[in-house]
């Protein structure tokens, strides 16, 4: 069944954009708003340089707080302190983990050593090395593949059954265990059983939500990255599996619980990153933008559940290579130039709960 949609012609965008984001579905063939696209280009020409002085401290401090929180939760005998430390660790590690998104868009020479440093400090310890996103996420940004069956990061969640939303979120609780199995058991098996290796690569080597997505073999520079990152993550996963033989079960179970909370938080953020109203049709750039979500200030809580620029996800789809630290200024300029009733304003939403409500209501009217 095709989704019902309301047409939002470019000439009427200023009048209808607020309605588009609050009540009606996006017209997938909405004519591109050339004024908005031109403004996005012209108003941000002086932005776009990734700054090591922001990236490195942000990532290192987040990771440090996260690992410190895990250690505190493991070592303390006070339940309240353990819970508080675990929550702090989950939030901090979530922020540190989200730099994987930046790694897929910044130029390889923009931040010397950052990809390696992030993988050693965050990606491999959390069993999410950058190869699981590199070469995958860029498909989500391709003009002709966004929202289609070829998009690894798109599901028409707003068009599915109501029970699919809680299942989509809660299945993330199993993500840490699944990653341990992938790297600690299946990767070693794949060294001796090629069909296992091929199956794992195609089905379990991408941070995707589309169950029909099959990953193609790596090419170019990614081949070398995959080899060393997968080997390092496999060694770490095996060490984690064997750790109860040296320690007791508490460190492992505590870390798994904290990582599960991080995974669920990321899944909640994913749930409201788009409106999920496309059932596989190609979309115009403006339609893709309106199907994506900004949760800009004045609210501050979005910086917790959508960190490292992800609260400006719709804007990111207009300017994928813009560093996260420049997105707030880019948003301010576009909002000021285009106004409250513009097409640009059509992708700005109030927060997580209104978005979840919109998607939930949509699943109930199918």
From TrEMBL:
Fatty acid desaturase domain segment(s): 87-341
InterPro entries registered for this protein in UniProt: FA_desaturase_dom (IPR005804), Fatty_acid_desaturase (IPR012171)
Transmembrane segments: 65-94, 114-133, 167-193
Swiss-Prot/TrEMBL GO biological process terms: lipid biosynthetic process
Keyword field: Membrane, Transmembrane, Transmembrane helix
Molecular function via GO: oxidoreductase activity, acting on paired donors, with oxidation of a pair of donors resulting in the reduction of molecular oxygen to two molecules of water
Source species, domain of life: Bacteria
GO cellular component entries: membrane
PANTHER family on file: DELTA(5) FATTY ACID DESATURASE C-RELATED (PTHR19353:SF19), FATTY ACID DESATURASE 2 (PTHR19353)
Name under which the protein is recorded: Fatty acid desaturase
């Amino acid at each position: 069944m095709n989704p019902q949609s309301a047409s939002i012609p470019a000439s009427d965008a200023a009048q209808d954009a607020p309605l588009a984001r609050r009540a009606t579905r996006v017209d997938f063939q909405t004519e591109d708003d050339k004024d908005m696209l031109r403004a996005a280009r012209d108003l941000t020409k002086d932005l776009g340089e990734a700054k090591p002085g922001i990236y490195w401290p942000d990532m290192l401090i987040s990771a440090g707080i996260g690992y410190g929180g895990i250690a505190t939760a493991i070592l303390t005998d006070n339940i309240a302190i353990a819970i508080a430390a675990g929550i702090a660790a989950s939030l901090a590690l979530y922020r540190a983990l989200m730099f994987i998104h930046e790694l897929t868009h910044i130029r390889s020479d923009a931040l010397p050593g950052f990809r390696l440093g992030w993988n050693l400090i965050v990606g491999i310890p959390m069993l999410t090395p950058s190869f699981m996103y590199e070469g995958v996420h860029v498909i989500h940004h391709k003009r002709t593949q966004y929202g289609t069956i070829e998009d690894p990061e798109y599901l028409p969640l707003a068009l599915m059954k109501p029970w699919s939303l809680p299942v989509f979120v809660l299945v993330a609780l199993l993500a840490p265990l699944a990653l341990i199995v992938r790297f600690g058991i299946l990767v070693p098996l794949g060294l001796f059983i090629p069909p296992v290796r091929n199956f794992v690569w195609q089905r379990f080597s991408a941070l995707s939500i589309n169950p029909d997505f099959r990953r193609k073999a790596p090419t170019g520079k990614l081949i070398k990255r995959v080899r060393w990152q997968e080997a390092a993550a496999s060694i770490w996963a095996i060490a984690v599996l064997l750790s109860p033989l040296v320690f007791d079960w508490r460190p492992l179970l505590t870390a798994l619980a904290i990582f599960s909370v991080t995974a669920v938080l990321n899944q909640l953020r994913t749930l409201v990153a788009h409106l999920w109203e496309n059932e596989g049709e190609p979309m115009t750039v403006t339609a893709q933008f309106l199907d994506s979500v900004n949760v800009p200030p004045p609210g501050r809580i979005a910086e917790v559940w959508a960190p490292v620029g992800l609260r400006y996800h719709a804007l990111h789809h207009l300017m994928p290579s813009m560093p996260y630290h420049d997105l707030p200024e880019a948003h301010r300029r576009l909002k000021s130039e285009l106004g409250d009733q513009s097409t640009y304003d059509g992708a700005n939403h109030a927060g997580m709960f209104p978005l979840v409500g919109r998607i939930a209501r949509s699943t109930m009217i199918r």
